[in-house]
């Protein structure tokens, strides 16, 4: 069921990925801090998605790997020294997040 919505979200995320968005505009859940990002075309990400049996219809969608939610600027000292992103599908317990857009903190 969750994959039906993935295509619609990833298209929007792909279009916005070129510039990034302010953290305050992330309305799909908390901003995520991912150790790395890439697309399903990337060999390591492709292997990870395959191992998790996740089919990503938009191979150009930005995917975050090993992600944790962070708070928005100014709250409690949380920060992201890796890649802050806003993702439309965070339902994989932080292992991967799909349909991501870079975030400006």
Topology:
Layout: H1 2-16, E1 21-22, E2 31-38, H2 43-51, E3 62-70, E4 83-89, E5 96-104
Parallel strand pairs: 1-5
Antiparallel strand pairs: 2-3, 2-4, 3-5, 4-5
Description:
Pfam families: Hydrophobin. Residues 1-18 form the signal peptide. Its main location: secreted. One of its GO terms (cellular component) is fungal-type cell wall. This is Hydrophobin. With 105 residues, the chain is of the alpha+beta class. The chain is 23% helix and 33% strand. It has 2 helices and 5 strands, in the order H-E-E-H-E-E-E. Strands 1, 2, 3, 4 and 5 form a 5-stranded mixed β-sheet that branches. The chain is globular, with a radius of gyration of 13 Å. The termini are far apart. The relative contact order is 0.31.
List keywords for this structure.
105 residues; 23% helix; alpha+beta; 5-stranded mixed β-sheet; 2 helices
